[in-house]
Amino acid sequence: MKILDYYVVDVFTDSRYKGNQLSVVYIDEELDINQYYDISREFGYSETSFVNYSIAENVFKVRSFTKANHEVIGAGHNLLGAVCLALLKEWDIFKHQGTEPHVMIKDDKILLKIIEQDGLPYVGMKQRPAEIVKTVPAEFIAPALGLSVADLDLNGWDINIVKTEVAHLMVPVKNSSLLKNAISHKSLLKKASEKFGFEGCYLFTTNRPDNDILAEARFFNPSIGIDEDPATGTAAGPLAGYLQKLGYISKDKDFRILQGEYVNQPSIIHVKVVDDGIWISGSSVIVMEGKLYL
């Protein structure tokens, strides 16, 4: 029998029992693929990350899986939580890296920026520049969200598939009340995902009374077993890029996205568009740790 250390962190928050829950398992070597699946399903969170430090490569390595046996990539809460955990536990994961700290998510190198604030690490993860892939007709997506075509009319903006690391569907919603009323019709969303070639559905509105928040968002991704995610870094980056391309926000300014309100796990995702990519930032707190038996 093999014993592994595990941790649960709340991500994109500085308070316990808020943010997006992430289980993180420390491994000494790669597991069998079915062990990744079994452990992720056992925890039951939207994602579980498996981490180890490679002495040979001088890099902290992360692999992440959903409870539906899907491996995820990109700079999202699965990566942010793993890096914050390492910093909170004072693991030396950046030795020999010089002035450009980075980690690996599966085969992708992700650049990081790290500051400390109020005793917590705040980690920035750099995504690629946003690419608008294609437009999806409102008539096709509205029924999948339990909304009308008119409900999706926000400033005349298109419903676009936007990609940094992962291609997600950006769905403008007229206001916060309609955003709250949206319902994920899983079979219809899966059909739309397959037809148009996107992964998750990121509903958002900029029409809200709180000027401190750029946008409020919800994320549905039934194709990989996520009913509703409290914080989605891989979608927040494309949203920031999308809004910058529309001329709604400027480059080199820090903005905040609120997500998770309607699953009682409010999360704050910081976004900043720069010339050569998009920075996604936030913190995490540890809520539990223990032993896992293989």
TrEMBL record:
Catalytic machinery residues: E47
GO cellular component annotations of the record: cytoplasm
GO molecular function: isomerase activity
Pfam family, one: PhzC-PhzF
Cross-referenced InterPro entries: Phenazine_PhzF-like
Top-level taxonomic group: Bacteria
The family this protein is said to belong to: Belongs to the PhzF family.
Name of the protein in question: PhzF family phenazine biosynthesis protein
Source organism (scientific name): Mucilaginibacter frigoritolerans
